[in-house]
Amino acid sequence: MNLLDLFAIGREREPGKKAVEFVDSRGPLGRRDLTFGALQQEAQRWAAAFARMGVRKGDRVALYLPNRPEFVIAYLATLEAGAVMVPINLRYRRRELSHILNDAEPALLVVEDAQQAVLDEILGADVGPGLAVLSVDRVESWLDEADEEARGDGSRAAARGEDAALIMYTSGTTGTSKGAVLSHNHVLATVTGLLSAWAWQADDVLLLPLPLFHTHGLIVGLHCALAMGATVRLRTAFDAEETVETLSTGGATLFFAVPTIYTRLVDLLGKEKEPPKFKGMRLFCSGSAPLPAEVHNAFERLTGQRILERYGMTETGMNFSNPYAGPRVAGTVGTPLPGVFARIVDAAGTDLPAGEEGELLLRGSNVFDEYWRAPQKTAESFVHDELGNRWFLTGDLARMDPQTGYVTLLGRSHELIISGGLNIYPREVEEMLTTFPGIEEAAVVGEPDTEWGEAPVAYLVCSGAIDEGELERYCRGQLASYKLPKRLRFVRELPRNAMGKVQKHRLV
Ligand code: AMP
Questions:
Q1: Fewer CB within 10 A of the terminal residue: the chain, N end or C end?
Q2: Which helix (H) or strand (E) element contains residue 411?
Q3: CA–CA gap between residue 290 and residue 410 (Å, rounded)
């Protein structure tokens, strides 16, 4: 089975139903809706145009596009052609873009006219001249010429389950980004796992403000909806007022977002005398970065809705989830999704008992096999157990609750602070700091310290002036003194990537 076979199950339920409803509320694109049937027809027309431009089975097609219906069409067209889609973060500029284009060597780059200036800088300069470029704003002439060829049976170059479907570049906070190769089977494993774990239904409507170039919007959002035959209300970006309006008037049953979005919703709803209860909503999900327990609880206090937090990665799709029916515990990512196996090990790779902190290792049908053209990086990212099973080293530090089995993520292993020989998990200190009145966001990083080797330093975003003496007294009552920040730095905002993840390397 390939992904198109999976999407056919969703489509054939009701081909005339709306698959994508797109509104560019602040931009020039206006509104466009596509039914499942129309989406397939468009994808096949585009696939014929791709073939005319030289795209063959196994070739890469890179998408450097914002959220818009053409993203979905171009992606499905890529799969129709048996090719491999490479989504590119729209915030990327010359260096990042050149790296990905030179590494993935796509046969075709799909863009919109608005990106032309960025491309003019690099095409022919950093990137070889052989790359074909197609603007979705000027696609019609290509489609007309290709129309005749599109009347085939759609099975031009059917991919097999083990063929690559996507190469997704990691956000690369520790060096140049690597392309994780995801096969149809890998993505299928995540999607089918989520469909059952979150009880997806055909009449679900997902409000999706997350970028489609990232695993959260693309795989958790778009793929599940297409597979289920559910509708996606796709947005170019998050708009707090519009979101509240849509969710409180029955415009959606599902909402997927990142923690910074929930923080903004809590800010907005906190100002309302009677915040809406979002009665028609079935599920609010959060992931891609840690959701502070404070925000989780505040959202429930305001709306009566308990967010479901889950954990995934570009390389693995989704790994852990709080239960759909069962207790959702703030500050945890729950338990492994169906078919995902996890271990927590110490630095020597020995399994740790529940309750102890170590690195999380994963295996399962969802876990990628390799980084694109990087056998060395691939080899360094896996270990084998005595049975020959291959485990992915996630680089995430975790602890499992001995009673519930729920896992808490403690931060990336390279962000662990070792001060005077003692381990400090930044997440624990950050969660504590945000319980102090007036502190809105906190990021704790290790900085060189002559006495302790490394010392924790806190970057704080505050709603007003805070009394540092009082904060120190508060902290001393909450955590062991060696974990407390040695210095405080007040900042207007924290540097974050497109998914709202704090970029700690930039703070350091
Ligand atoms: P990405 O590949 O961009 O999806 O980033 C994956 C990383 O995001 C993971 O390895 C985690 O470090 C982090 N992450 C994802 N979900 C969560 C979560 N619910 N809580 C804490 N960290 C998360």
A1: C
A2: strand 407-412
A3: 9
Residue 307: name the closest of 330, 290, 279 by CA. 330
Please say whether the beta carbons of 83 and 58 come within 8 A: yes
State the pLDDT at residue 490.
Answer: 96
Provide the token pair at 454: 């490394």
Listed in sequence order, the residues at least 6 apart from 260 whose beta carbon sits closer than 8 Å to its beta carbon are 289, 496, 500
What residue ranges define each of the domains in the chain, with the CATH number in brackets? 3-196 (3.40.50.12780), 307-412 (2.30.38.10), 417-506 (3.30.300.30)
Structure tokens at 258: 């990142």
Beta bridge partners of 257: 286
41 Cβ below 6 A of ligand 1: no
In DSSP terms, which residues pair with 86 in a beta bridge?
A: 62
Question: How far apart (Å, rounded) are the C-alpha atoms in residues 233 and 230?
Answer: 10
At residue 153, the pLDDT reads: 43
The answer to whether 33 and 173 are in contact (CB under 8 A) is: no
Residues 6+ apart with CB under 8 A from 83: 50, 55, 56, 57, 58, 59, 60, 61, 107, 157
Report if pTM > 0.85.
Answer: yes
Span from the CA of 412 to the centroid of ligand 1 (angstroms): 9
Tokens linked to 28: 């020039």
Count Cα atoms within 13 angstroms, Cβ side, for 3.
34
CA of 110 from ligand 1 middle (Å) equals 28
Q: Which residue has the CA at smallest separation from atom 1 of ligand 1?
A: 313
- CA of residue 439 to ligand 1 center, whole Å: 23
Report which DSSP code applies to 23: E
Ligand 1 atom nearest the C-alpha of 497 is: 3
